Amino acid sequence: YAGVLKRAPGQRDALQALVAMFDAGEARLAAAQILAGTLEPTGDWQHMIAVLEVLCEAAAAPAERKKVLLKVAELYERRLGQKDSAFSTLGRAFQEDPADDRVRLALERLAADTDNYEALAAIYTRRLEGLEDRAVQLLLLRRLASLSEERLGDVDQALENFKAVVAQDPKDANALMSLERIYRQRENYDALVDVLRKRLKVIAKAEDASALLYEVASIHEERLGDLGGATQAYRDALEVQPQDLNALRMLDRLCGMQGRLKELAEVLIAEIKLLDKLGERAEALNLRFRLGH
What we know:
Blueprint: H1 2-7, H2 12-24, H3 28-35, H4 45-58, H5 62-79, H6 83-96, H7 101-114, H8 117-128, H9 134-151, H10 155-168, H11 173-186, H12 189-199, H13 206-223, H14 227-240, H15 245-258, H16 261-278, H17 281-292
Helix pairs in contact: 2-3, 3-4, 4-5, 5-6, 6-7, 8-9, 9-10, 10-11, 11-12, 12-13, 13-14, 14-15, 15-16, 16-17
């Protein structure tokens, strides 16, 4: 049959006989190898898919299996209009090469077309197992977090995925801000403070860092009842902006509330120096009076 079809690729009797052999399981792989190059013009898409599946099973290399599966997915979608089958086939291709953005984007497109986000999340989760490519790991964790929160309404799973992203990339600003948003919604202030401090490492402007530290201080004092934590946050704010008079005033108040007299004296001295520099002599004089008593 191979010789006949080589001379006359569309020879009907030879094709039918070869398809019959394939269906009967006789020399199935050999028949599939011949049919793969001759069957498509007939429009027999079901047999064409079956042939390609046999070739996929026999392929030793992931790249070859992916190539065959992409063809199968194309037939399902474009020739048979079966998007669900195309989606599941692309999921198998993705397992072979998770770094291929073309496959991933096609998979996400079909997930949207079929409203099959739960299956997409399962495909990504399965492929993460044993995956060594760090860049692909991060990409899939980010996509999983987005899917979980925005499409599946599973905030708990999104939270775990965002945490996994930050564990691998502590400077991922988007993941940090997502964690911040979730912790705010849940009023988990201990975790929120931790995330805000991590965000400090990715903030370039001193003004922005200072504003974040003020919020950290406020949460410590007003939500957690932790005056020591608030005190440290204002000290950190002074490290960022040493001329921050308001931060010194906050430290003045907090040290007084805690009876930390030695630290209070140091803060008063710093306040006086800054007020003198700013020309605020009346206030500086009042602080000197306090310092002396």
